[in-house]
Amino acid sequence: MVQCGHGPRFRVHEVRSPEPAKSGVQNPESRVKVKLRSRHLLGIEDLDRSEILTILDQARTFREVLDRPIPIVPALRGRTVVNLFFEASTRTTTSFSLAASRLSCGCVNFSKATSAVSKGETLLDTARNIEAMGVDGIIIRHASPGAPHFLSRHVKAFVVNAGDGAHEHPTQALLDAFTLREKLGSLDGKRVLMVGDITHSRVARSNLLCFSKLGARVAVCGPPTMIPPDIEQYGCEVFYRLDRILDEVDVVNMLRVQQERITSSSFPTVREYRAFYGLTAERLRNLAPEVVVTHPGPVNWGVEMDFDVAEFSRALVLPQVTNGVAVRMAVLFLLAGGEGEVRS
Ligand code: MLT
User: Fold this and answer.
1) Which atom of ligand 1 is nearest to the CA of 162?
2) Could you list the residue range(s) of the whole structural domain that residue 86 is in?
3) pTM of the entire predicted model
4) Does residue 262 fall inside a structural domain?
5) Nearest residue by C-alpha to atom 5 in ligand 1
6) Binding-site residues, ligand 1, Cβ < 6 A
7) What pLDDT digit, counting tens, does each position of 299-325 carry?
8) Tens digit of pLDDT for each residue in 47-80?
9) Residue of 198, 203, 262, 305 to test ligand 1 pocket, by largest number of atoms within 8 Å of CB
């Protein structure tokens, strides 16, 4: 939901190069060592533009590693993280596991169904017991907004929010931003349209914050029942008719209809939803040639997108998934104490 603020600030500690530029003129080749001071990544809400760019620049380095014949670096050798997932996941849990293994970091996967949570053990007891076995980082997905923030106040390990209810999903926003920068160069001044279930989507909230901080102009479009009433205060435009805005944007970010979080009927029928808000084959054909399409997955094919999008050359759905591994490598590396290096 578009509200709520938790947790410590996520700051960047800048160590300037030893010889500062004379007369206030920056040497274009000088580099700045950047270290994240916070031990946690709880939400995009806590990051500023330079922190986001630090993570994305670090991810670029790791993206190159993923293209090598042996895509592994020893950056986190000897460390261990746990995927503490209390909600279903395919992409995010696999992506964090792979990111850890590409960094030579151990990764343990926790499943709610087969754990002592089914016997009534609390979130905190579960986390503390796992931490007691020697875990450096906890990657948590939980149905309750604020669960990662709560945990971060009670454990010594670093905490990464992998999705907390309808609140935030910061690594999804970072991987979406990474993918769009790779394709478009920069998000500065770009017009991004998020379409669909804005109210129930944690991706919508994180993406809105992330894209805006990177200079994009964000608009949202969906049925009035799926757009939070106060969303304009976040600086985005609101549209209720997709065909009114579709030909004016650079990026179409489709969102999944969040069936599991919808408690009342938010639209009359799936057929009607698709007709008004779906990226149908016909709408796809009418998109301007440079427009790109993203979706965080999983896709409800035939609802928010027709299957034709899977074959559309400017759909970035699978590149998003590949880039997600590099972005999560960057997050784990920086939170575990690594230093990023960016041009000043
Ligand atoms: C999420 O967990 O929020 C997914 O990445 C996106 C979705 O489920 O729609």
Assistant:
1) 2
2) 27-168+323-336
3) 0.88
4) yes
5) 296
6) 92, 163, 169, 172, 202-203, 256, 296
7) 999 999 999 998 899 999 999 999 999
8) 999 899 999 999 999 999 999 999 999 999 999 9
9) 203
d(CA 117, CA 94): 22
22 occurs within a structural domain:
no
Distance 190 CA to ligand 1 centre (A): 24
The DSSP line for 255-281 is: ----GGG--S-SSS-HHHHHHHH-B-H
From the CA of 87, give the closest atom in ligand 1: 2
End-to-end Cα distance, the chain: 36
For ligand 1, atom 9, name the residue with the nearest CA: 256
Does residue 2 lie in a domain region?
Answer: no
φ/ψ of 14, rounded to 5, equals -100, 125
CA–CA distance, 262 with 174 (Å, rounded to integer): 26
The CATH code of the domain that includes 145 is 3.40.50.1370
Q: Based on the number of CB atoms within 10 Å of its own CB, is 32 exposed (0-12), middle (13-18) or buried (19 or more)?
A: middle
